[in-house]
Amino acid sequence: MVSLSAAAFWLLALTILGAALLVVMSKNIVHSVLWLIVVFLGIAGVFLMLGAKFLAAIQILVYAGAVCIMVVFGVMLTQREDMSKSNIFNKRMLTAAPVVGLLLVVSGTLAFKSVDKAPVNGGSVPTNTVEAIGELLLSKYVVPFEVAAILLLVALIGAVFLSMEVKPDADND
Amino acid sequence: MSFPLLTACLLAPLLAALIIIFLPKDESKLHKIVAVIGTFVSLAISLYVFFAYDKSIGGIQFVERINWIKDLGVTYYMGVDGLSLPMLLLTNLIGFTAVFASWNIPNRTKEFFILLLVLIAGVMGTFITQDLFIFLLFYEVVVIPIYIMVIIWGSSKRVTKEYAGMKLTIYLLIGSAFLLAAVIATFVKATQITGTPDMSFQALAQVNFPEQFQIWMFLLMLIGFGSLLSMFPFHSWSPDGYAGAPTAVSMIHAGVLKKIGGYGLIRFAVYVMPAGAAYWSPLIAVLGVAGCAYAAMGALAQKDLKYIVGYSSVSHMGYVLLGVAALSVVGVNGAVANMFAHGVMAALFFSMIGFIYERTHTRNVSDLGGLARQMPKLAVGFMMAAMASLGLPGLVSFIPEFTIFVGSFERFGLLAVVAIAGIIITALYVLRAGANTLFGTPREKYNHLKDLKGVEMVPLVVLGAVLVIGGLMPSLLFDMVDSGVAPIMSHINEYLPTAVQIGGKY
Amino acid sequence: MLTTISPMHFVVLSAALFAIGLFGAITKKNAITVLICIELMLSAVNINLVAFNMFVTPEAFIGQIFAIFVITVAAAEIGVGLAIMLTIYRNKLSVDLDDFDWMKW
Amino acid sequence: MVEFAMNHTWLVPLLPALSFLIIIFFTRPWPRLSSTVSIAFMLSSFAVATLAAYGVFTDAQFKHEPLVYAIRWFGMEGLNIDVGVLLGPSSAMMIFMVTLVASLIQIYSTGYMKGDPGYSVFFSYLSLFAASMLGLIISSNLLQLFVFWELVGLCSYLLIGFYTHKNSAREAAKKAFITTRIGDFGMLLGMLAIQIIFGTLNLYELGQIMPNFEDYTTAGMMTLIAVLLFIGPIGKSGQFPLHVWLPDAMEGPTPVSALIHAATMVVAGVYLVGRTMFLFVEVESAMYLIAVVGAFTAFFAATIAVTQREIKRILAYSTVSQLGYMMLALGVGSLTASFFHLWTHAFFKALMFLGAGSVLHALHHKADVWDMGGLIKKMPITGWTFVIGGLAIAGIPPFAGFWSKDEILLATFNEGHYLLFTLGAVTAFLTAFYIWRMIFLTFFGEEKPDNHPHESPLSMTIPLIVLAVMATVGGLIGTPMNPHWQEWIFFGESHHIVPNIPIMLVSIALAAAGIGLAYVLYIKDRNKANVKDLAIRFKPVYTLLYNKYYMDEMYLWFNHKVVDGSARMTHLFDIYVVDGIVNGLGAVTKGTGGILRYTQNGKIQSYALVFFLAVLVITILLAFNDTTSMALVLGGVSK
Lengths: 173, 506, 105, 639
Description:
The complex is a heterotetramer. Chain B is mostly helical. Helix content of chain B is 72%, strand content 3%. Chain B has a two-stranded antiparallel ribbon. By secondary structure, chain C is mostly helical. Chain C has a single domain (7-98), classed as Helix Hairpins, CATH 1.10.287.3510. In chain C, 73% of the residues lie in helices and 0% in strands. Chain C is elongated, with a radius of gyration of 17 Å. In chain D, strand 1 (67-76) and strand 2 form a beta hairpin. In chain D, helix 2 (11-27) packs antiparallel against helix 3 and helix 6 runs antiparallel to helix 7 (167-198). The interface between A and C is large, with 89 and 72 residues.
């Protein structure tokens, strides 16, 4: 008897991994970006499954929304040639594949070996996550929160500064 | 806690460097003035400390101690004793005059003086700290400005300045690698034995290290400090480096930086590892004597003035090593005093050579001659340095050399005779260089050259005065050194084989 | 195994996603794809964090809050990364990472 | 007054030192003022010295116990050095003599150096020189003495090289310094040994200790110390084989030659041996060595002097020869005779040098005696005073040189050194010959038409006259009839001299024979045909003598080939072996780097690949090795 949650998990897992593989494998970068959205959505589903409703929402907003749009813009601004060959592999395939594969095998093995040792304490996540997270962020984690805010600001300024059009005759000092 | 004089002394050049950073880069006059003020404050403070130090009490005075890294037992521990005070004074004398010696550098004055001031502060730091960690810290601080200054403001003669700078830096860094290994091992061992981490020299000296450990550690330190001291056969950076470096760097390097090697050898290696010192002292003596004789012969074959002085400083450091190797109060006193004397003399020498080079654009002895007619004041300075170099009594270097000879002759006998014979060769090459540069038929093409004037006289006056005062009143220096060395050497006798009295009944 | 979900499942999912992302990051020529793959890797980490949040410390929200920060940083990273890519593209007219070997010196 | 002078004898060197400072720092632009300052200080120093000497020679207690006072100079555990004054009959005599001669020479220099651009500097050097020399004399400590010893060397370096624009002056100065430096090396070793063995360098204390030296060390060690210490005087006093610098030192201005060769620097070595006589008398062989070196030097230098042509060079070799006499006297144990000769020699040799200077001054520095002749008519004062000097050095009674030389020969004879006595006697003959050869060629005979000599100014002739008087009467205080000198200046017990009439007669006869031979060869024989004939017949001997036995060439060869050669070898060794190893290590490092750099292709994805490969390896190593490290990897997951 396959429980509902197990079915959901397998479905989501297959979606995520399949889409991720397509992201990597497709030769056209626009397709990659589209498959990326699927991956992110799948991950949001996983979050929901794990009781992180707020995170799922953020995942959709930030990743599937903002990040992907930004990447699309990036693609638009940098690709001027044939899109069908915009996303090809380099010659490191042959060395990278075994390394990554082995890495996956090792971590999988470790995960299987440690399956009984996981310190599962059996509690469940409170349902109103937004309120709890909000309170924690503004009390206990206020300093990292503010730092993250500053980081975003700096990243914003930096991104603007870097991508600003530079006049060819300007003195670069 | 009273006013932190030593910290002030250390910070004055740094502060000056900081001010120069914010000055416009075209105001070279202003850079120089700020540098002069910074170094002068340090000089004044170190003079005050030198004379305010109470020799009758001895020990570490003017102490400032603040905990820094507790787990490593590192403290910001500043203090001076009779061993570090002459070195502190020397540093500031040379630092002060080096600013004047580089008065005429043509380009990038701003960067030059910033680096120079950092260099001075770094060297000073090694001498006034009583904490091993801070000592190493300052030592590493010093290396970088030197490298930059050599490759930017240096001069290429027999070797390129890039080669010279690289050689200098890599030698110093390799030396410090050996040193670092020794320091870490010593610290770990000391913590194992006592249980409480403490990086101060005094605390480490209290620890009873096993004899075998001391022997190995001392060897590492000897290589480390030795390469800094240009101990034979780790000396070849010294002539090349000095020849490539700008005047001020040569002055500071030969004058004080090298002395960190000798200072460290006494302050750290001999003090903390007396058994190791006793075990290796014959080797030190042999290397010292080899350095004396070998470098003197090397100097004899040189044609470039800076190479001559470079080799000569290797030779003089051989005397220092010989004094240390004697491991007696007399010998080590002589070694410390000789470091002071050589510092003053080498700085004067290099500053005069710098002035000659600025004017004639050559340092080749055979291209010079008869300069005494055209530049009498410069000739006086050059001659004073030369005479001090060959150990003329009445100038500061004679008594230290004599003291070293007494100390080493007592312990090594014949070996010391070889070193003493070095004084003849020294006279030969120094006089050759001096006489052939200054005397003889004056050359037409140098007739238009101007003698030293204005601020250029400062190195001559200051260093010359120290040469003479130190020569006429050696007790000024020796009483100070003695108060610092005597406690360090107080236990060494336990480790020495029974002293052989030369000329005893045999 | 198939019917009950344990933390191990999520760990393996996360590992697989991470491996795919890593593989892409190493083997793709296009710099933007590399950025995308790095996002994949970060997401894999997030899955792990949230999963352990549920199974180990459900009340304390440590994992979730950590994930929020990861998302923040990831957003900042991709913003700056794309900006850098744009600048490079403007100068070199290429986003092929194999063309960029300035790190040699 | 006298009391004050004796207790402040350090003023004697201090006053000229002050004048040096004053001239250097203040009065250098005004030559006349400088010389006045210098002479004034020198004369006041002379006054103090005279008073001190008067005090010593009127109080019989100083015959055996000198006046010593000192302060600590510097010290530490195991090495304490004092500076102070040791005032006894010898030092009192010396300071009197040196201040007198130095004053006269300074007065002379006002005339001789007139118009020289370095006038002020010259006087400052003279002052410094006098200061150093006087300091040397009154030193109470060997190290203090050594300090002044070296300062004297420095001053002589500066003075010999005074004409800085002349290459020959530069070379001569260098040679003087380095040659004496070789001597100093030995002396330094000797001093070190004394310090280490006896624990003190105070002369007076050493004098007390030395008779019991067996408590401290062995006879072999004492011999070594004595020989080492004697090397210093060999260099300083121009004894064979380190005499080569002395004739070359003539490059300096003539007053300097007078000051250095007559009164002061060169006798410093003799003075040192005299001062440390207590040490040498303990070692028979060292004494014998001194005597042999002295006698040989005397003879050797005299033979060279016979053939030399330059007036100052002849005088220089004669100085070497006379110094040999003094050493010989010391070697046979007669401090009295040695210092007596030192005293008389100072006057007549200074006189002759200054006279030679006067001649050179008049002839515009034409130095070859063969180009002179008949000068006595134009320069009567110079000429006749020079003749007095010649009589004195030749040993004609009653001039000063006779009494002292006789004393030396007598002491040698009495000690039973007959060979050395013969050498000394032959030297006396040679001395009379070559000095009078010079006098005849210079002052008598035909005048040379292209010379236009004129008598020198008063400032130069007055010192000549004073010195001539001293050269005449200076010996009378130590004649056998009137042995004041012998009562005061002696080592151990004062000698009761027994005049030995045959020896005296032999000595006079030899001197007369020398003068006579010179007269026959150079005055009687107007064309000098015999001389030329002799020179041709004994050509090898003549060439050998004229070239000073090729000693200079030997030293040059040694210096250039051996010393410079090995220096060049060292240099090459340094560049190719020591530096070669260093650069080789560098090259190996660079080569390795060159190979390894291909791993650094600059592509970030390769780096990432390597990074994760490393992660993988570390993980495998840690995770599958043992359980504890596995726990480390799994972190909190494993309990």
